[in-house]
Amino acid sequence: MVRQRKTKTAATVSTGPHDEIPEDEQWRLINESGVLKQLQTTSLDQTNTVDDSDFSLAEEIFDAAIYIIPISFLLLLMEILIHLQYGKHPSLNALTDRMLPGVPIISICVFYTTRHKKRKENDLSA
């Protein structure tokens, strides 16, 4: 079997000066086959799909919330551990005093970071 395959491929490939096609004949074949037009149409479709893949505001907020929630809980955990490190039990007042200004700042930073990251990925894929 292997020998038969080798002989078939060797028989179809021939080298010689009569295998060369002139450039004008190559261009005529390309234009008649429509391959060039298909490539141009395909490239236009790909640029349109990149524009369609832009995230809406709701998707950007959802993506940011996926990161904001665990980071906020990490801040809460660290605040509790800091209080326990000094032998104090954290009160609800102390925790809310730390979380109320901290979570919005984290949210803004995460939102714009994830938004920039998605836009940069879209620019690289285009």
3D structure, described in words:
It is a single chain. The protein has 126 residues and is mostly helical. It is built from five helices and no strands. α4 runs antiparallel to α5. The protein is rod-shaped.
Name the features.
5 helices, 126 residues
Which secondary-structure class do the elements indicate?
A: mainly alpha
User: Main sheet, how many strands, which sense, barrel?
Assistant: none
Pattern of helices and strands: HHHHH
Helix content: over 70%
Secondary structure: number of strands: 0
Count of helix runs: 5
The Rg value, from CA coordinates, equals 31 Å
pLDDT averaged residue by residue: 81
What portion of residues belong to β-strands? under 5%
Shape: rod-shaped
Low-confidence stretches: none
Distance between the termini: 46 Å
